[in-house]
Amino acid sequence: EEEKIRLGYEKKFKRLKDLNRKGAEPEKLQATQSSIKKELTKINITIRSIDAMSNKVHKLRDNQLQSELTKLIQG
Q1: By the 8 A CB rule, do 16 and 33 touch?
Q2: Which residues contact 8 (CB under 8 A, 6 or more apart)?
Q3: What is the domain extent for residue 68?
């Protein structure tokens, strides 16, 4: 899913550059910029979601390790 979003962003960004280079109408440029902003929003949401999951994994790992270390120390 993340790769699909990234590829969509790159494709739209390339289209914007091409339209800009060709001197396209402002409406086309604005429409493409708007779709790029939507892709960026999706990317940012995905990044935040991954960060949240990663933090949960780290907390679980740390809690389990702490428990195991305590058991080892106490013998």
Answers
A1: yes
A2: 39
A3: 2-74
Structural domains counted in the chain: 1
If you search the block for the tokens 């740390």, which residue do you land on?
62
Question: What pLDDT band is residue 64 in, cutting at 50, 70 and 90?
Answer: confident
Place of tokens 């949401």: 45
Total residue length of the chain: 75
Query: pLDDT digit string (tens) for 21-50?
Result: 999 999 999 999 999 999 999 999 999 999
Burial (CB count within 10 angstroms: exposed 0-12, middle 13-18, buried 19+), residue 34: exposed
Give the largest Cα separation in the chain, rounded: 75
3-state SS class at 75: coil
- Cβ-contact 32, 19 below 8 angstroms: yes
Structure pTM? 0.70
